[in-house]
Amino acid sequence: MPGELLRFAEDLNSLHKGFPEVTTVNFEPAEPKILLRYTIARTGLIEGTYAVSSDLVRRAVLTGSFSMDQSYLPGLVSALRKFVRQATDAA
User: Fold this and answer.
1) pLDDT by residue (tens digit) across 12-23?
2) Would you say residue 37 has pLDDT above 90?
3) Which residue range(s) make up the domain with 55?
4) Which of 11, 18, 63, 71 could make an S-S bridge to 22, C-beta 3.0–4.6 Å?
5) Residues with Cβ < 8 Å from 78, sequence gap 6 or more?
6) Rounded to whole angstroms, how far apart are CA atoms 55 and 50?
């Protein structure tokens, strides 16, 4: 999972730096219980969606959406990298 989170951080960084060529980033880890999607509009507003499931058998799913300004992406990338670094150092 640390590698997946670091890839997600890099994808978010690409979304921030590569706009308008890059407009959507997905986080779909190997563990199929979570899905995050960030899509950036021409205005710089990011629309996000998420889906979290309890398990594959019952298929109970929590879904929702959120929005944020693209200026929050560098801080989010930094926080993800720091989280992974601290989690792997503690292991």
Assistant:
1) 999 999 988 999
2) yes
3) 2-90
4) 18
5) none
6) 15
Question: What tokens were used for 2?
Answer: 């640390």
Residues 3, 47: Cα–Cα separation, whole Å: 25
Between CA 50 and CA 7 the distance in angstroms is 18
Provide the domain count of the chain: 1
Query: Both tokens of residue 61?
Result: 């799913």
Q: What is the pLDDT of residue 16?
A: 93
Environment class of 25 (CB within 10 Å of its CB; exposed 0-12, middle 13-18, buried 19+): buried
pLDDT at 9 > cutoff 80:
yes
DSSP class of residue 71? Answer: G
**Angle 60-63-65 from CA coordinates, rounded to 5°:** 175
CATH of the domain at 42: 2.30.31.40
Distance from CA of residue 83 to its chain's centroid? 14
Closest CA relative to residue 73, chosen from 29, 31, 12:
12
